[in-house]
Amino acid sequence: MSELPTFATAQSVAQLKALYSQLLDEADDVKARVTDFKQRSAAIEGRARTPEDDIRVTVGPHGDLRTLEIDPRAYRKLGPTELAQEIVELCERAHRDAGEKVGDLMKSVLGRDFDVEAYLRGDTQPPRPSRLPSSTPNQGLDLGDWLDRLKEGNL
Q1: For residue 15, what is the DSSP state?
Q2: Shortest CA distance to 119 belongs to which of 146, 139, 149, 99?
Q3: How high is the pLDDT of residue 139?
Q4: 3-state SS assignment for residue 56
Q5: What is the pTM of this model?
Q6: Confidence (pLDDT) at 47
Q7: Which residue has the higher pLDDT, 93 or 154?
Q8: Which of 120, 88, 89, 90 has its CA nearest to residue 102?
Q9: For 81, which DSSP code?
Q10: If pLDDT is split at 50, 70 and 90, which confidence band does 1 have?
Q11: Mean pLDDT, rounded, for 38-57
């Protein structure tokens, strides 16, 4: 067995092993949540219809048209240009509906702290508090301080 560096104590090595194990478990959890998100988001559909329910559209999570239903009543009240415009507007509404559902799913997968709207705008997320071990309860240490304490055996 190799000899431990002089700054490493049995306690600090055990803490590092526990932290490493926790990080591996969290990485596995994230991978599982991403897989679940991909499967569930692919099944999301957005829907929109006219107030008279004579035109209905369904789109996928990326806005891809999945179904278009046009009742013959729509042909009698709308000309070709108006009908096309109505279909485009319904597709846009259905896409927004699907986007809201994807956003809700993202929040459920990524947690309440994740701001989906800010992410979609390109804003950065606020930093999360440090989860590195600390000798003082409720007081996070930055990595440098934590490593210094580890070297000193003061964790």
Answers
A1: H
A2: 99
A3: 52
A4: strand
A5: 0.60
A6: 97
A7: 93
A8: 120
A9: H
A10: very low
A11: 94
- 19 contacts 30 by C-beta, under 8 angstroms: no
CA distances from 153 to 11, 14, 128, 133 (A): 8, 12, 26, 13
CA separation for the pair 89, 81 (Å, rounded): 12
Q: Positive or negative, the Cα torsion across 7, 11, 12, 13?
A: positive
In which residue are the tokens 């994740």 written? 114
Residue 118: CB atoms within 10 Å: 12
Q: What's the rounded Cα separation, in Å, for the pair 63 and 61?
A: 6
At 44, list the tokens.
């999301």
DSSP per-residue letters across 126-148: PPPPP-S--SSTT----HHHHHH
Residues 110-154 pLDDT 10s: 766 666 667 667 777 666 665 555 444 445 556 666 666 666 666
pLDDT, greater one: 40 or 116: 40
Question: Which residue stretches of 53-115 are H helix?
Answer: 72-77, 80-110
Give kind and range of the element (H or E) at residue 117: helix 116-121
Distance, in Å, from the CA atom of 18 to the CA atom of 26, rounded to the nearest integer, reads: 12
Q: Report the candidate in 120, 141, 151, 132 with the shortest Cα–Cα distance to residue 5.
A: 151
Rounded Cα–Cα distance for residues 15 and 155 (Å): 8
